[in-house]
Each structure stands twice: as structure tokens, then as C-alpha cells.
Model the fold of this input.
Amino acid sequence: MATETKKFTGSERAAIFMMCLGEEAAAEILRHMGPKEVQKIGGAMASLERVSRSDIDQVLLEFSEVVQDQTSLGIGADDYVRNVLRSALGDEKAAGLIDRILLGRNSKGLEALKWLDPRAIAEMIRHEHPQIVAIVLSHLDPDQSAETLSHLPDRMQSDLILRIATLDGVQPAALQELDEILERQLSGKNTAKSSMIGGVQTAASILNYMESARESSIMDGVSQVDEDLGVRIQELMFVFGNLVDVDDRGIQTLMREITTESLVLALKGAEDELKDKIFRNMSKRAAEMLRDDLETKGPVRISDVEAAQKEILAVARRLADSGEIVLGGKGGEAML
Done:
């Protein structure tokens, strides 16, 4: 009887492949990766158990097929990256990502920041011009940028989100100057390529990772200065209510990663449509128990509900980053 092949995530497949290469080769590959990739693959390596010979053979076969399919002679590496990403994401979504990839290859000053603790980054940039700070925050990953922003003075935060949301590319000379500033502190060299970093989507992504109270305070400050911009940012933020747009398989995957206590608290502030979707993706007995828990749960503080929703959203984003679920839908609703 044929043995059923396990389904591995992308990080797990990469981990299996690298473990087959041996320590020295794997270490050399990791040196060319960013901090997020190192963390994901390192975590996958640590958690892998009972990988069979057939699993290894399947991963190596897939790798061989991908290499054969994607090797492209006669086309420049930059063009290849651009073509692949545009084909996968479309021109608009790919634009900023393309520039960040090609920028990051040479801009070691900016890239080195991604390895630093957010508090250290905040201390490094807090006395720079706000526009410089906005560019740096736009270049970081949203979760790291959000934590860095939280360590900056409160009076700066709304202004920085405004600058990020209205940032429309960076001139080569300005980017070169910024990278040289960071180079003196972190070492590295710059690139003269313009980067399409910043924008309303970047601002929304950063705010998605902020604590609810701080997020609300920043959005209030943004809306006071530019109400229309505040609405545009809010429309692009992924909030708890947007989980109703995640497909059933994604909801089931998400629920395996969260505690019942967090789910009960979070659903106290959810719309009936989302509650029904959660119930439909549980066993009949589990759904009945969850309904009972919701009915018997007494009054809860709004801050506790928001904290539980943020916790679940953080798990959802982690699963989306690893390709295990797809987050869909836009638009925000007021948190209860």
C-alpha cells in the first residue's frame, strides 16, 4: 500500500532541504537570508519530527522541479524578479515589494536595521528628521515598525503615520544620504535606486500591529489633520471583523492555534455573522460548548476584548505570512 505523503509548509520544506545539505552548507544559505526568514526556517528545523525517507525524497524532487521550471537563461536577475512578482501579485502590489527586494540586496545600512531590537532602532532614529524616520519605518517589516513606533514619543506617532501614508517614493539622492547615515553606524553601502516604500497600505499595515489604545490614539491624530486620509487608512486595515472573509479551511486552521479563552473573549465583541462562521467550522459538540461559554460569560472589559482580538489577529497574520491561510477582505468596523 502506498504511503500518503505529508503536506509540509514552505518553511518546513526549506528546513528539510537545508538539513539534507549539512551544517556548513545550511549555515552559508542562512547568511544570505533576512531575520524573518532565519526565524521561520530555524523554528521549522526545531519543530520537525518523524520525517521519513519518502518525505525527504519528495521535498528534493519538488526542489529539482522548481529549479528546472524557474531557471531562466538569457534574462537578467533583476528582470526575472520583477517578472515573477508582477505575474504573481499584479503590477500595483508588486511595485513596492520589488523595490524593497532589489534595494535590500545592496542597501546594507537599511537592511541591517531588521536585525536590531525595535527599542534600539527607536533610540537610533528618534533625533533624525521626521521624514527620515518615516522612510526607515516604511522599510522595516510592519510588526517591527509598529513596535519601533511604540518606543518613539507619543507626540511623534500620528505625524509619522501621516508621513508614511503620504510618502510617494524616495528620490535616489535622499535614499543614498539615508543609507550613508546608517552606514556610519552599522557599516554597509548604499544604492542609488529609488524605492517605492511608504504609502497608505504601509501605514495601515503598521497600525495593524499596534495595541488597540495606541492605534486609536494615532488614528485620532491622523484624522484631525487629514480626515480623508484617516478613512483611507482605516479601509485598508485588517480588523477582527474581516475574519468573516477568510475561507472555512483557513478558519479551521486558525482555531487550532488559539485558546478557547481567547476565542470566547474575542467573540464577545464580534458580529453574529462572524460568530456563525466560527460555529459552522467546529464540531457540533464544540460549537455548543462555545455558545454556552459565551452565554455564561459575564460582562467583560472592552480592553480585554480588544486584547483578545489583537492576539487572534496576530496569529492570523503569522499563519498568512507562512502561507497556511489567506486573509481576505478590507474595511474596518469599530471595535466593541
